Amino acid sequence: MILILEADLGEQSPIFRQLLTHLRGLAGIQFRVHREQGAEQVLNEIYLIGDTKQLRVEDMEALPGVEKAIRVSREYRMLGRHTGDQRTHGFEYNGVRFSQDNLHVFAGLCAVDTPEHVEQMLRALQDNGQVCARMGAYKPRTSPYAFQGHGKACLPWVFDLAGKYGIRVIAMEILHESHMDEIREALEMTGHPTGVMLQIGTRNTQNFALLKAVGRQQALPVLLKRGFGITLEESLNAAEYLASEGNTKVIFGLRGMKSNLGDPHRNFVDFAQVPVVKRLTRMPVCIDPSHSVGSRDAGPDGIMDIFHVAAQGVVAGANMVLVDFHPDPMTALVDGPQALLLKELPWFLEDVRLAREVYEERRLLATAQADMVESDS
Ligand code: PEP
Ligand code: MN
């Protein structure tokens, strides 16, 4: 059960203390306080675990300081949607709002290579009005002999360049908790010219020690990619690990499933699950058309499959698009064959905008339909 407390109820207030004393007296119940810093106010929530069946929602709502009690109806206690749960979702990070209601494109290099390429990419993003980017410094590679990413060494100049071109959030994969510390130190050292969204890749979706470590910090938001060979439920539980440790600033990423049934795509595109994740949880949903498709192949209509699947995800309500670009894909050190060209950036963004417009219209249509059904009954 979740108790949502009255807004701005300080932890030092007598009402808050009285409430905790009461909860401590409940047999078989443990609890945990979670503090959510919203745009305008601080929201305190208390998660009750244990024998909560014995508790009545009305009794809990009658307690001083409690605004609402929600019986948790699903497995994803913190990130899930529960019956009667009207809590707002989403979060703000470094001036950018992320929620199930909006959309951001994170275009950029799969792997950071040279300062020239990074600068060309970031300049193109700024020229096209973008404030988010993707930049891989730590790369999980199948072969130990393949380029592993520049790691810590590139962070200061990547962050400085991002700041120079007005990039507010960079999605950057980490493979180990020490990488998170390196990122935080480099941000500190460079004076926070930009922000970082920590990305946990598909190979680490169930690296529980990493999830716990990343979840223990709340400064940086997290993009968790689904595991390529596990069920959606298992991946959503992985996201819950982050939240259960304290970090609820989580975006869930769909990136395709490893299966020959998706051939000739690199992965079996799973963007039909965008609305499923939005229904089951309060997380914004990201799609990665580049790692799903894996090539620049186009249909007879001249539209690349990467564009097609991105549009399919956006038309279904996706909130973030992570997509590979490179100024010179022939020299890219990782994933050159799936990279879009800088001159294709305005085209891609316009295609995404069109798909989003269609989604907005579909949403209005659905609302009008629901109103009609209600007025008929
Ligand atoms: C990536 O986004 O660079 C990446 C490696 O993705 P995934 O974990 O989905 O393979
Ligand atoms: Mn890649």
Automatic annotation (TrEMBL):
Keywords tagged on the record: Transferase
**Top-level lineage group:** Bacteria
**MF term (GO), any:** transferase activity
Q: InterPro entries under this entry? A: Aldolase_TIM (IPR013785), Class-I_DAHP_synthase (IPR052899), DAHP1/KDSA (IPR006218)
Keyword Chloroplast present in the record's keywords: the answer is no
Instruction: Show where the DAHP synthetase I/KDSA domain sits.
Output: 100-348
Question: What is the name of the protein in this document?
Answer: 3-deoxy-7-phosphoheptulonate synthase
Instruction: Record the organism.
Output: Acidithiobacillus ferrianus
